[in-house]
Design brief:
Elements (H helix, E strand, L loop, with lengths): L5 H15 L8 H15 L3 H10 L1 H11 L22 E4 L6 H12 L5 E6 L2 H9 L1 E3 L8 H7 E3 L7 E4 L1 H4 L2 E5 L12 E5 L9 H13 L1 E8 L14 E4 L2 E3 L2
Parallel strand pairs: 1-2, 1-7, 2-6, 7-8
Antiparallel strand pairs: 3-5, 4-5, 8-10, 9-10
The structure holds S-adenosylmethionine.
The site of S-adenosylmethionine has 24 residues, from loops.
């Protein structure tokens, strides 16, 4: 596959930044090459031709953004901050939900405590949203979930789904997957008791982070919590939230 030269690398980086807020640096050059390669093969075009395509074809742009995002996630990731949910709530927004493990973990956590919020799960990646909507995961991805929770909230696959589990319908119905680009889209006027926006702002620079936190804070209810990832911080940014502890902020 033809590798990106400096000009092409810079063009693609600018576009990824403009479209997704993701700040790619020189260390990410190999990664970008590898990820674009997939789409170049599918379309059978050169990097320059493909660059033109993604600027003119919104669907191909979605596939491209899908290919360049990092979607690593797992069930009950950094679940220490889930205890803030113990007070109960009715609306949660999981704002970079990847393939669904995070919003389903939130749903299960709440069900175990006797309440059933509605959860909006959003991501920029269309393939992740599809996986989340299907709610089907390989057995090894639920290996660390306690047996009693597995039995209560997951169905074991049979036949061609041998080796997979499916999130039970009751839990799936609590989670509504939608595409939402954190840097480009404007939230609807609905408000949320909790917003989880975890392990995505690490890819953003301060300017994008500030914009994202500002717009999400607008739809967080007073008294609601804004939860970020363990390796993220809002320090040095202008925002309307009160720091509670690492990863946890409050709209006072
Ligand atoms: C590393 S995953 C984190 C998933 C989950 N929040 C967690 O903590 O396990 C980051 C997710 O952010 C999504 N993402 C990246 N840029 C985005 C953007 N501009 N808008 C919405 N989602 C974005 C990616 O598609 C990916 O699924």
């Amino acid at each position: 596959m033809e590798k990106l030269n400096n000009r092409q690398f810079n063009q693609y980086c600018d576009l990824v930044y403009r479209e997704a807020g993701i700040h790619l640096t020189e260390e990410k050059r190999e990664l970008l090459n590898a990820r674009i390669a997939k789409r170049l093969r599918v379309q059978n075009v050169s990097p320059d031709v493909y660059f033109g395509m993604i600027q003119n074809d919104p669907l191909e742009l979605k596939f491209f953004l899908d290919a360049v995002t990092t979607n690593h996630t797992f069930f009950f990731r950094e679940s220490r901050s889930f205890r803030y949910l113990d007070r109960g709530c009715s609306e949660i927004w999981c704002a970079a939900s990847s393939s669904g493990e995070e919003p389903y973990s939130l749903a299960i956590y709440c069900l175990e405590r006797g309440f059933k919020p509605s959860i909006m799960a959003t991501d920029i990646s269309v393939s992740c949203l599809e996986k989340g909507t299907n709610g089907v995961y390989p057995m090894q991805s639920v290996a660390d979930i306690p047996k009693h929770l597995l039995g209560r909230y997951f169905q074991k696959g049979q036949g061609r789904f041998q080796g997979y589990v499916k999130v039970k319908d009751d839990v799936r119905r609590m989670v509504n997957f939608q595409r939402f680009n954190l840097v480009k889209d404007i939230p609807k006027s609905k408000t949320y008791d909790f917003i989880f926006c975890r392990n995505v702002m690490i890819y953003f620079d301060n300017e994008s982070k500030e914009k994202v936190v500002g717009k999400l804070s607008n739809v967080l209810r007073t008294g609601g919590n804004f939860i970020i990832g363990g390796s993220e911080s809002l320090s040095g940014l202008e925002h309307p939230l009160k720091y509670i502890e690492p990863s946890v902020y409050l709209k006072a």
